[in-house]
Structure to design on (511 residues):
């Protein structure tokens, strides 16, 4: 069954690439880069012939993602638990958070650039902003769906607040929490890369912007594929962590 | 402990809860003592505050007035070295197996893994759960879940076992069997049990003393001593007349609580 799913996925991928090739050749190949042109560009990119300084850009982007996501996790857990465990604060702030989450986050980006400048700080801020909301809201939902009876039982058995947190709250909300952490990671990555595309001199997004601006479309496509690789690998890492967490609760 | 200090002493406790129509007095001026080894049942109409009273004994509900003493010391919070509690909702941790649920209290007390595993495994056999050690709560029946919860309470081996309508959510047959089984445990361990129920049958079959509470605000209406030996023949003239007497008292209070 698994092998069948896999081969189907590969078939769909290959079919998509074939369709892409046919469509791009029929249209203007400069604007609609066919895979046959994208592959050499990707090779040039990875061999550092088209963009020799790619590693430093890529490293910067990854650093921005790590910092943005790290801050989003810390703040999301802190605010989420703060609002979730304090009923009054939760009632006041949770609706505001949900409303802010519904606003398309990109509208904040110009003001972030004004506050934090054109360098890494504004990208980190944007990645943070995007990752923060889903994490916070997942923690809030997780705290609320924890069965209060389990908390009562643990208290009766002498659980102090930190024990209650580790042995009851965290396992009870693990699935919701991990889901939020995953969504947050994906959005932090998007935030950083979009931030770089919208305005910066370095980072993967700035290269994408550069290639696009100079109509170097094959290079542009190759960079997009690389960006996809970054997103997919963070998602794979998140999946591995999720499995880890499941095993941990099962113990 | 000096013999003239009762194991549990409740001294003029009271509790109010806030509600939309002003504070509601749940229990008022309740005093009672429970001696070592007693099986003391608290019975009364719904909402008479019996669960509140038990929560006070467990240290989970603070008293608004009066105090609760366990072995002469005032109760200020849960004390798992002396008191274990079983609730109507077993509250098993769904991510833990039956065995791991039984281990929970020992784990919190820092008992080493091997030791607590041993204690829990030894407990599962008399609970009739030996074959279900590695099952998760969702894979167990209601009666089994409640036995796991009782196992979890027994594992920390306290002198006092508090039970808040532990069989309330079970069907009649399971309920009777669980009662017989609990009686057996009690007689072997000689724990002091405080048992909240609204079942006449449970009260008469299990208790050495029955405390009847009034409708809200809960006060003590009467106390019934039951010296009859176990297992009790529920059809004996003695118990049938006791049942009628107890029902008379509870009926009156239930009517009052329905009329409001």
């Amino acid at each position: 069954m698994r092998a069948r799913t896999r081969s189907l996925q590969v078939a769909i991928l290959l079919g998509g690439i074939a369709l892409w090739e046919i469509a791009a050749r029929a249209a203007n190949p400069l604007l609609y880069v066919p895979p046959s042109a994208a592959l050499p560009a990707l090779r040039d990119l990875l061999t550092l012939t088209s963009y020799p300084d790619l590693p430093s850009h890529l490293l910067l982007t990854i650093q921005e993602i790590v910092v943005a996501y790290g801050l989003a996790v810390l703040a999301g857990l802190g605010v989420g638990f703060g609002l979730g465990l304090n009923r009054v604060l939760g009632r006041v702030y949770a609706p505001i958070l949900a409303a802010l989450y519904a606003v398309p986050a990109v509208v904040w980006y110009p003001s972030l650039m004004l506050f934090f400048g054109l360098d890494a700080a504004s990208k980190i801020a944007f990645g943070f902003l995007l990752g923060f909301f889903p994490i916070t809201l997942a923690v809030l939902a997780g705290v609320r769906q924890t069965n209060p009876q389990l908390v009562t039982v643990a208290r009766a058995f002498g659980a102090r607040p930190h024990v209650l947190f580790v042995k009851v709250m965290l396992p009870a909300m693990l699935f919701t929490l991990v889901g939020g952490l995953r969504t947050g990671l994906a959005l932090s990555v998007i935030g950083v890369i979009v931030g770089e595309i919208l305005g910066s001199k370095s980072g993967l997004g700035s290269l994408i912007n550069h290639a696009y601006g100079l109509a170097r479309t094959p290079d542009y496509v190759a960079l997009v594929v690389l960006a996809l690789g970054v997103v997919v690998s963070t998602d794979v890492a998140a999946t591995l962590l999720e499995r880890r967490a499941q095993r941990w609760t099962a113990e | 402990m000096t013999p003239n200090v009762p194991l549990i002493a409740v001294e003029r406790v009271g509790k109010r809860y806030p509600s939309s129509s002003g504070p509601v007095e749940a229990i008022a001026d309740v005093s009672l003592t429970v001696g070592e080894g007693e099986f003391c049942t608290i019975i009364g109409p719904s909402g008479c505050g019996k669960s509140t009273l038990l929560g006070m004994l467990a240290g989970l509900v603070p008293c608004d007035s009066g105090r609760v003493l366990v072995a002469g010391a005032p109760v200020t919070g849960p004390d798992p070295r002396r008191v274990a509690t079983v609730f109507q909702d077993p509250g098993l941790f769904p991510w833990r197996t039956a065995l791991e649920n039984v281990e929970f209290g020992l784990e919190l007390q820092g008992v080493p893994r091997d030791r607590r595993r041993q204690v829990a495994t030894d407990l599962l056999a008399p609970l009739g759960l030996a074959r279900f050690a590695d099952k998760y709560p969702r894979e167990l029946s209601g009666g089994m879940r409640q036995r796991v919860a009782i196992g979890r309470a027994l594992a920390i081996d306290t002198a006092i076992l508090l039970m808040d309508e532990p069989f309330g959510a079970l069907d009649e047959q399971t309920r009777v069997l669980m009662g017989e089984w609990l009686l057996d445990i009690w007689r072997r361990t000689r724990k002091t049990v405080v048992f909240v129920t609204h079942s006449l049958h449970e009260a008469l079959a299990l208790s050495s003393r029955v405390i009847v509470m009034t409708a809200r605000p809960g006060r003590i209406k009467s106390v019934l001593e039951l010296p009859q030996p176990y297992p009790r023949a529920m059809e004996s003239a003695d118990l049938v007349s006791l049942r009628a007497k107890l029902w008379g008292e509870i009926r009156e209070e239930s009517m009052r609580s329905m009329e409001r």
